[in-house]
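Q: Got a minute? One more chain.
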Amino acid sequence: MPGLDIQQIMERLPHRYPLLLVDRVLELDPGRRIVALKNVTFNEEFFQGHFPGLPLMPGVLILEAMAQAGGILVLPEGGSAVGKTFYLVGVDNAKFRRTVVPGDQLTIKVRVTKARGNFRKLSGRVEVDGQLAAEADLTLTAVDPA
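A: Always. Here it is, folded:
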C-alpha cells in the first residue's frame, strides 16, 4: 500500500496537535509493517520545558510516536478506526540510544511480531539520519468504546 499524508493519518488516528506525532507514512503493509516520519521542530510545546537551553524530545514522546505508527499499522483493512479505540497497554525492552533534538527527522519503523485476539505485539525502532535513536517492544489492544 502506498504511503499516507497527514490528512489520511488524521482519518485513522484520533490524536490531534500537539499530540499527533506522525507526519507522514512512507510505507504501509497493513498488519505487517509500517515506516513513518515525524519532523521534530523547535516550536513544539514540549521544548519550552524540556529542557530550557538544551531542548530534547522526551523519550516517552518517542515511544508515543512508535505507538501511533503501530496504531495505524494494526487498523482493520481499509484503515478506518471508526468503532475501535486502540490503547498502548505495554512497553518492554525500551532503550534510548541517542538524543532527539529540534531539526531531527524521526524514521519510525514498526512491525507486528504477534497477533492474538484484540492484542498486537509490535517491535519498533526510531532512527535519525540512519542512527538508532530508540527501540522498544509494544503491546496494543483494540477496544470497542462503551
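A: The chain has one domain: 6-143.
Q: Perfect, thanks.
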